[in-house]
Design brief:
Elements: H1 2-12, E1 15-20, H2 26-41, E2 45-50, E3 67-69, E4 79-83, H3 95-100, E5 103-108, E6 119-122, H4 129-139, H5 146-159, H6 170-181, H7 186-194, H8 199-211, E7 213-215, E8 220-225, H9 227-233, H10 245-248, E9 255-262, E10 266-273, H11 279-284, E11 289-290, E12 294-300, H12 303-324
Parallel strand pairs: 1-2, 1-4, 2-3, 4-5, 5-6, 8-9
Antiparallel strand pairs: 7-8, 9-10, 10-12, 11-12
Helix pairs in contact: 2-4, 2-5, 4-5, 5-6, 5-7, 8-9
The structure holds manganese (II) ion (MN).
Length: 325
């Protein structure tokens, strides 16, 4: 079993770097910091390298003082672990740290994972990498504490949308129960990650709703966000996170897309589905990837052309999914 090899490599390594994906989300950050704190307990020289600063809503995470934004320079590590990262491109500039490492590990749960490391442990049934790291920490013989449990809880809670999405399993709840037993303050964390929104983000949400277009008897929702909208709202880039759910949450909607236009010809696409469309397959047509119910891609070109093509591809996926039942 690959995980056993990974355990022995971790035990044998002195210095370990942890790399979550670019635009790190709650799972990527929570899993990385939980693993870092556990490795510190084993007296490892461990570090987390990020592509960008930690978003404000995750600034309360324990261990974040050990995470740094990669400046293009890092020392050599015995072992490098990519977390929650489907392919090497999702490591951004930090793929250099990864390429230069002697031993590489890839811990992930995306079904589009390209198995780009030497040791790949991809568990697609895990709701979050937090579940995998939880298992790993247990196998390493490190006891949970409130800080590690808090990081893991944030990882699992965010990737399951607060234990509401279809990826939530009995195991997810069992792990969450254990984390709560180890000191997680459930109401405090949930308020911080789900119920604290800046005024700027609320303004951006208003513009997002105004931009919304619906197709196919309101089964498909498109939201468009431009640089100008973000600027007008006074919002930060991280405020665009989760806005796609404004479309997905509509009763009739099966597939929601958020098109974040950067400049005139770069478009970041977020895709979400509710019950039956595999959006990772759609993202795959545009060199992206992700999960069945949450995926994304980056496209260069004109927004009008992309909208037209994407709409056709989503319609096709809707049709095929319905036929297959
Ligand atoms: Mn994840």
């Amino acid at each position: 079993m690959v995980l056993n090899h990974i355990i022995s490599k971790i035990k044998g390594a002195k210095s370990i770097a942890i790399l979550p994906h670019v635009s790190a989300d709650g799972d990527a950050l929570g899993s990385s910091l939980a693993l870092l704190l556990a490795l510190k307990k084993l007296n490892k020289d461990a570090a987390v390298y990020l592509e960008e600063e930690i978003p404000f809503i995750y600034s309360f995470l324990p261990g974040k003082q050990h995470a740094e934004v990669y400046s293009g320079r890092a020392k050599e590590f015995d072992l490098v672990i990519a977390l929650d990262t489907g392919d090497m491109e999702r490591l951004g500039e930090r793929s250099r740290i990864f390429r230069e490492a002697l031993i590489t590990v890839n811990l992930d749960h995306h079904n589009t994972n390209t198995e780009f490391a030497f040791y790949n442990h991809v568990q697609t049934r895990a709701s979050a990498v937090g579940e995998i790291v939880y298992q790993l920490i247990k196998m390493l013989g490190v006891s949970l504490d409130a800080d590690i449990a808090t990081c893991l809880y944030v990882a699992v809670a965010t990737d399951t949308g607060g234990f509401r999405y279809g990826n939530t399993t009995a195991v997810t709840h069992q792990i969450a129960g254990d984390l709560v037993n180890n000191g997680v303050n459930v109401s405090d964390i949930n308020q911080k990650i789900f119920e604290s929104v800046s005024l700027q983000k609320v303004k951006l949400m208003g513009m997002a709703i105004n931009s919304m277009e619906l197709f196919e008897n309101n089964k498909i929702a498109f939201i468009t966000l431009t640089d100008e909208m973000v600027r007008k709202a006074g919002a930060k880039e991280e405020d665009c996170d989760g806005i796609v759910n404004l479309g997905r949450n509509i009763y009739s909607v099966e597939v929601a897309a958020m098109l974040r236009m950067k400049g005139t010809d770069l478009i970041k696409v977020n895709l979400r589905s509710k019950n039956y469309v595999d959006v990772s397959a759609i993202a795959g047509m545009y060199s992206g990837g992700g999960h069945k119910r949450a995926a994304g891609c980056i496209v260069t070109g004109k927004i009008e052309d992309l909208k037209e093509k994407l709409l056709e591809d989503i319609k096709e996926a809707l049709k095929n999914s319905v036929i297959r039942g």
